Amino acid sequence: MIKFVNFAKYYNNQAILKDVNLEIADNKITFIMGKNGAGKTTLVKCMLELEDYAGEIQYDLGVSENEEKKRILAIWDEFPFYDSMTGLNNLYVFSEGLKSQREILEIAQKYLGKEILKRKVKSYSYGQRKKLSLILVEILEPQIVVMDEVSNGLDYETMVYLKKYIRELAKNATIVLMGHQFEFYNDLIEEMVVIKNGSMKTLEKDFQNSGHQLEEIYEEELYRG
Known about the structure:
Number of strands: 9
Radius of gyration: 18 Å
Largest sheet: 6 strands, mixed
């Protein structure tokens, strides 16, 4: 569970998000929708304690506050891989000893070939870097996973596998997705939240049975509403 209590974020006295009180359910796939610049990335940075904020963000993970940070993983374009190291060595470093090198290689090869994994990350394409970050999700098995524009740069086969994996992951983790490639998310998400004019609200609690499409909601909520 992720609970926002009187949450607010300001830059130079301007409210990016304010008076936010809502919960994101455990073991669900929740989609957060908002225009570019609405505050989605800022929200994630606050969740990771990379930005100061007012109010509270509470997690019910059954561990200490210091341990909570280790149970939350965000996947976005700026993941801080070491460019001068190989993809495989990056995985060894970020795996925090949770799996053996053999297990890491087995997981990694679902996404990238061994010859690519042995190359330095600075030579990777956008899509290859994205796949490298997805490998970490399988290795670390976090309790909360935030994925921003996760489908961008992926080939069709990887997107099909990723959908299956996200559904499997949600059995034991809370998944938060954000992005604009709506066709990828439409048959995947269960609940959704909208960010608009500095506020956040839960819009759908049972998205798959609502008969709605993200494209329609985006148009209605963010342009006509």
